Amino acid sequence: MVSMLIYIAVVLFIAYCGYGLTLYFMQPTFLYSPVRKVTHTPDELGLDFESVVFKSPDGLKLTAWYVPATLEVRTKAASVQPGDSLPTGPAENPKLTVLFCHGNGGNMMHRLDSINFFYNLGLNCFIFDYQGYGKSHGKPSEDGTYLDAQAAYNWLTEEKKVPPDKIIVFGRSLGGSIAAKLTTKVQAKALIIESTFTSYVDIGTKFYPYMPVRWFASFSYNTIDHIKDVHCPVMIIHSRNDEIVPFEFGLQLHQAANEPKEFIEIFGSHNDGFLVSGETYKNAWTNWLKFLQEYESRVGRAS
Question: What is the CATH number of domain 35-302?
Fold first, then answer.
């Protein structure tokens, strides 16, 4: 009987170690889920946009869209009939630009709903694909995503001549960690992160509580440490119903952030919370934009 128990224990231990090794080597596959084909563009929403190609600091070609919230939008000629009125955007040219760091899956075409949302708010949007996503060259890595975000910021400020105090850095899910890291190194009007984990290790522990994730984690994405070093206004958005990134992670990020800061609770799943929350989500952005304007005025008077 003792020999049998020892045998079972050894078999279970070997199986456990084998599973652990599989998880260790599969980490990049679990973390990054890029889609290479880009079959949809903002043009299908009637939005004017600029296809942008720029290089990361390590010399790889990256692709992006710059979508201005202008009065004129491009409409396919086939859909325009004589006498039809063309769709129009916000009544005034926008002054702020959202630098959009998207999540770990798909590519920028999967964020058309968000691009349209920003357009309707009167915000320019600059969204880019990380290395290995969409038509961007290379292979995704943690350092690579940080370099890509920095390169996107540089393009906005150097090529598009957007002043740093007119840039809102926004990241969703994994992109929130990348956005927070970027904002520790550059000037920006504000940082907004949505549905983001506190760290790679913390989210790994949630999914694999029976594994020593902290011992063999290949990535960091330590959002909670990044956000402590952010010194511009911060808004954190999270759904209590998020089935992938626990709601308490959002609360912990808010607690760690410096003032001024705001926490917005939405509802819905990890991937569609911003859609199903509807007016709650829209009002959060609208009110935050008003706050930023008032905050800028107060800071300006104080200086």
Answer: 3.40.50.1820
